[in-house]
Amino acid sequence: MKAVLEVEHLVTSFPGVGRGKTVRAVNDVSIVLHSGEIVGLVGESGCGKSTLGRSIVGLEKPESGRVIFDGVDLGSLSGNRLRAARRAVQYVFQDPYASLNDRQTVGEAIDEALIIVGVASKAERSARIGQLLDQVGLASAVRDRFTRELSGGQRQRVAIARSLAVEPRVLICDEPVSALDLSIRAQVMNLFLDLRDQLGVACLFIAHDLALVRQAATRVYVMYLGKIVEGGGSDEVYGRPSHPYTQMLLASVPEADPMIERRRKIPLIKGEIPSPTNPPSGCFFRTRCPLAVGECARIEPPTIFLTPTHRIACRFANEIAQKSLTDA
Predict the structure, then answer these.
(1) Rounded CA gap, 267 and 314, in Å?
(2) Domains parsed from the chain with CATH numbers
(3) Which pTM was predicted?
């Protein structure tokens, strides 16, 4: 299957607190998205997930690495070609209350995007607005309401409709349901699934809620302190987690059955995330890892492939995977 978006060895840094200090928020990250799939990107707050998403769409400037869209390096483009490529990769922000202008009506918010992409006819734009509202499950009657009059779920649907107005092939969704009530989250998640099936849009779904990602994503990347520590098919990552960090994240997800939940022994992730301006030597996770040995401090962990699609950045990956098979 041909990749629609490839990120190769991307590095994005920011000045840190203190003279000469640097925060490497995205550290040598490589990921792939194919058309018509939802890919999850999970990890604790501050691990660099949002910075990676913003770097892909150009809201942050990478220090090195490449973002390749449809076989073309975006860094090699300029002018109209770059603008056309950027339109094909759209961003859905976390907070629908901040991403929309309260002084605009729903119709005006979407119309603005259509004008930018060159739909000159007012009649054509009006018809397209109706189609977009229908696609995201909103009645055409809301087009004349101010965005401030809508609920959080409705506002997020408007934000998604505005992103779809430019007919993107990739959506970068940064915690798109975390600001919404639980009762609304499932509706918005179902909307993303419908868009994937109907339009073939690829979606990078950034979230810290592993249970939510499991419902939608076909593949998952796990990020820690700017690095991808595990990646693979959802069944592989959730069914056979082989990095200590992934195992601990999954263990922290509550069970629906209260009887099972009360009996569970949850392995806590000890300590706090190290300072990104002064990360540990060798394996970044070693200061919190129950398996860490002296070699983990001296050498960066190798990338081990348990299958052609399941990769883990941990020297103990094979032992962890074997133990999980034995325990099962």
Answers:
(1) 18
(2) 3-88+168-327 (3.40.50.300), 101-166 (no CATH)
(3) 0.90
